[in-house]
Write a structure and sequence with these properties.
- The complex is a heterodimer of chains A (264) and B (145).
- Chain A has 264 residues and is of the alpha+beta class.
- A six-stranded mixed beta sheet of chain A has the order 1-2-4-3-5-6.
- Chain A is elongated and about 115 Å long.
- Chain B is mainly alpha-helical.
- In chain B, strands 1-2 form a two-stranded antiparallel ribbon.
- In chain B, helix 2 packs antiparallel against helix 4 and helix 5 packs antiparallel against helix 6.
- The longest helix of chain B is centred in the middle third of the chain and has 30 residues.
- Chain B is elongated, with a radius of gyration of 17 Å.
- Classes of the chains: A alpha+beta (264), B mainly alpha (145).
Chain lengths: 264, 145
């Protein structure tokens, strides 16, 4: 009996069946539209993901491509065949002197040594135009003192520049306690220094004197951050060398000028 | 018109983007001035001095600032295209932040609180943008008809 209710019988008027058909069609259209919207959204999501993937891959490739030009063993060949004595690098009679104040734990000092120093050595020190001095400060923490002492001790073997080069290449986070005896020994070894001699000279009076001298001359020069640089005629008055960026090009103009003045 | 884009996810995204702009501006300024950022994690300078702090000639901090500004612009682009644009930008930012955080932890071996803060903001932005794209507008425009 009840089944007859669901069968469109002769009782249902023409207009009623028309209405039902229209509603069904409308519903189907709405469903179709919703489906299209969903498809459109997912297409946009897919496109966005693809685009984002491209952007990120490109960025990472460029980022990883600009790799550090330092290796664990430093850049020792840069100092080959260049006269060296204590904290000095280059021909003692070079007309221009460039002084650096650095802390071996300071990341920007590392950046300078890795990115800029080899270029300057090649262009100005090897040619006999510039001699360099390195004064090590110990303001960051106790490890700075340990490292500076070992570097000065290596200087007694005329290997300070190799020593700091390797120490920077292996630099870790400031005051993380990385400057252990093992660390210092391995740096000495890689720099080609006599390991035991470095250890015994680290505590010497001469090294202690060098540390306090570096501190007082930094104070006299009004140095408040590292790395800081001074430049001037050898034996004459030095002036502060301010650089906007730790890149070779930022140093070249000032050094060229000094060399030209000194050669006049 | 205001109402149609100023729904809740958009408002959240706008606030987050402004926070991101503030962080990235600070880091960009610090980069160009060559000064040390305020740092409680102890590794900011190390991260800043690393080779990864620049992409070609562009400091990563500036790249972040540009990214956040683009996201802010995308937030006012109407419709689904605008929401997809925000989604794409925040997904890129999120993925790149993951890469940078990986570098900090495993390669540079130092953490920079500002960089981490930006990574967190970018992650939240990505989540918000995803919600905004897949479940657009709470009240929504009234259905036509």
């Amino acid at each position: 009996v009840s089944a007859s209710l669901y069968v469109p019988g002769p009782m249902s008027s023409r207009s009623e069946s028309k209405k039902t058909a229209r509603e069904a069609r409308l519903k189907a259209e709405q469903e179709e539209a919703a489906k299209n919207r969903r498809q459109r959204t997912w297409a946009l999501v897919g496109g966005s993901v693809l685009l984002a993937a491209i952007v990120v891959v490109v960025l990472i490739v460029i980022s990883a491509g600009g790799s550090d030009n330092s290796s664990e063993s430093g850049n020792l060949s840069a100092f080959e065949g260049i006269p060296q004595s204590g904290i000095e690098l280059g021909d003692p009679k070079a007309p221009v002197t460039m002084v650096e104040y650095a802390d071996l734990q300071c990341p920007f000092c590392r950046k300078y040594t890795v990115d800029v120093l080899p270029d300057l050595v090649e262009k100005y020190v090897k040619t006999g135009d510039v001699r360099m001095e390195l004064h090590l400060l110990t303001f960051i923490g106790p490890d700075s003192d340990k490292l500076a002492r070992a570097a000065y001790a290596a200087g007694q073997q005329d290997l300070m520049w190799q020593w700091i080069d390797v120490a920077y290449a292996r630099q870790e986070t400031e005051n993380s306690g990385y400057a252990t005896t093992d660390f210092i020994d391995s740096v000495s070894k890689a720099a080609g220094a006599n390991v035991d001699q470095v250890n015994s000279d680290s505590g010497s009076e001469e090294v202690t004197k060098q540390i306090s001298e570096a501190e007082s001359s930094a104070q006299d020069a009004g140095i408040s951050s590292t790395p800081s640089f001074e430049i001037g005629p050898t034996g004459g008055e030095l002036t502060k060398l301010g650089v906007s960026r730790l890149e070779t090009s930022a140093f070249e103009d000032a050094i060229d000028q000094q060399v030209a003045d000194a050669k006049k | 018109v205001i109402r149609s884009w100023a729904d809740r996810p958009t408002m959240v995204a706008t606030v987050l983007t402004l926070a991101g702009i503030a962080i990235a501006s600070y880091l960009t300024w610090v980069h160009y001035e060559g000064i040390s950022p305020v740092c409680t994690t102890g590794g900011c300078e190390r991260v800043q001095a690393s080779t990864y702090a620049e992409i070609g000639p562009i400091p990563v901090a500036l790249l972040g600032l540009i990214g956040y500004v683009l996201i802010l612009v995308s937030l006012v682009v109407p419709g689904e295209i605008g929401r997809a644009l925000t989604f794409m930008l925040t997904l890129s930012g999120f993925a790149f932040s993951l890469y940078l955080t990986y570098l900090e932890v495993f390669v540079i071996d130092a953490l920079c609180q500002w960089c981490l803060a930006s990574a967190v903001v970018m992650t939240l932005l990505f989540v918000t943008a995803t919600v905004r794209l897949l479940r657009p507008g709470e009240p929504g425009p009234p259905a036509p008809g």
